[in-house]
Amino acid sequence: MLKVANISFGYTSKEVIKNIGFKANKGDYVAIIGESGSGKSTLLEIIYGLLHIEKGTIYWNDQKLLGPNFRLIPGEDFMKYLPQDFDLMPYTTVEENIGKYISSQDKNKQKRIKELLKVVDMAEFSQTKVKNLSGGQKQRVAIAKVMAKEPEVLLLDEPFSHIDNFRKNKLRRDLFRYLKLKNILCIVATHDTTDALSFADKILVIRDGKLIANNTPEKLYTNPKSAYIASFFDEINKIPVSEIDANDTSKKSVLLYPNQMKLTEKDGIKATVVASYFKGNHYLIEAILNKTTLFFEHHSVLEINQQIFLKLAIDETK
Ligand code: ADP
Ligand code: MG
Q: Looking at the 3D structure of the chain, how many domains does it have?
């Protein structure tokens, strides 16, 4: 088990990681989400042992990780870290880039390279020089490279950022299935909703260096504690309760996803249509309510400037 306890860190006197703690088990996939500059990359570098922390401790099983001040070569042996700006050897082949990390004494070396190239769907490029690959293909090779010497913990920083959507889904499915099979703990910093929602066992949400949520994707999605959290999953509406219930004089508001509001004939929240965006199986309608922008789903385009009424579409039987 990985146990991160009360760690804080600053590049200067200003802390950018503020008292973060969490636990993760072998074979788990933990997604770290948060806006740019919130501290995701810094947190991964601390865990890997590249940055020295004055406050807090990190344990892997019963072993306390000592950090860069106590190691000749920074970085723990049982972990692998793939930085945002990964580097490969451009003038050697894909196979050589991966093979470099597997001992030549290992008689399964070729088999292992093949297996890894299959996971990242790059088998047909094994003899291609890295400099001749596209950005997305290089990223696949980089992912295979960090898995070459099978780590116990894998830290990936925005690992699919260069890979187009068309191929991303298959790669994610194959990769996360493989990591589960091998019981490798994987911690991924990402701003891609699908990386987190569809695959993660647990999502950590970071804001301004603080861990503001740590829960399963289902729990975070259905009960987001703030608009910041919900906004990673979808457009989010923050509606004053007084708009829904005229008798409510409190200043409270509710968070609603676009599919939790729908058009009604009359007697609802009165808004004005601003735009309709085609989303494939529905339109996302942008509307305005007292200067607040709202989003809801509808089956057809609505006329701009049209006055509409909205009501909640929450399934109350649940
Ligand atoms: P994220 O990965 O979530 O975008 P980072 O961990 O890269 O965030 O950055 C967190 C904060 O630390 C930011 O305010 C960033 O400007 C600052 N920071 C990151 N790297 C350095 C560095 N090498 N020196 C000084 N400040 C840094
Ligand atoms: Mg980053």
A: 2
Q: Is the CB of 37 under 6 A from ligand 1?
A: yes
In this structure, are 206 and 69 located in the same domain? Answer: yes
Query: Are residues 82 and 165 located together in one domain of the fold?
Result: yes
Please tell me the distance from the alpha carbon of residue 226 to that of residue 303, in angstroms, as a whole number. Answer: 32
> Given 172, 204, 226, which residue is the final one in a domain?
226
Judge whether 183 lies within some domain: yes
Backbone angles phi and psi of 225, in degrees to 5: -80, -15
pLDDT attached to residue 173:
94
Q: What is the mean pLDDT of each run of 10 residues along the chain (318 residues)?
A: 98 97 98 96 97 96 92 90 92 96 92 96 97 95 95 97 89 96 97 90 98 97 94 92 82 92 89 96 95 94 96 67
Residue 298's pLDDT is what?
Answer: 96
For ligand 1, atom 26: residue with the closest CA: 11
Identify the CA nearest to 149 among candidates 76, 59, 230: 76
> Is residue 317 a part of any domain in this protein?
no
* Cβ partners under 8 Å of residue 284, min gap 6: 235, 258, 276, 277, 295, 296, 297
308 and 174 part of one domain? no
pLDDT of residue 242: 84
Ligand 1 pocket check for 38: Cβ under 6 Å: yes
DSSP 170: H
Say yes or no: 219 and 251 in one domain. Answer: no
* 175 shares its domain with 213: yes
The C-alpha atoms of residue 244 and residue 221 are separated, in whole angstroms, by: 22
Nearest atom in ligand 1 to 157's CA: 2
The DSSP bridge pattern shows strands 185-189 and 17-24 to be unpaired
Residues 264, 140: one domain? no
- State which of 12, 13, 33, 41 you would mutate to test the pocket of ligand 1, scoring each by most atoms of that ligand within 8 A of its C-beta: 41
- CB distance 71 to 145 below 8 Å: no
pLDDT at 245: 79
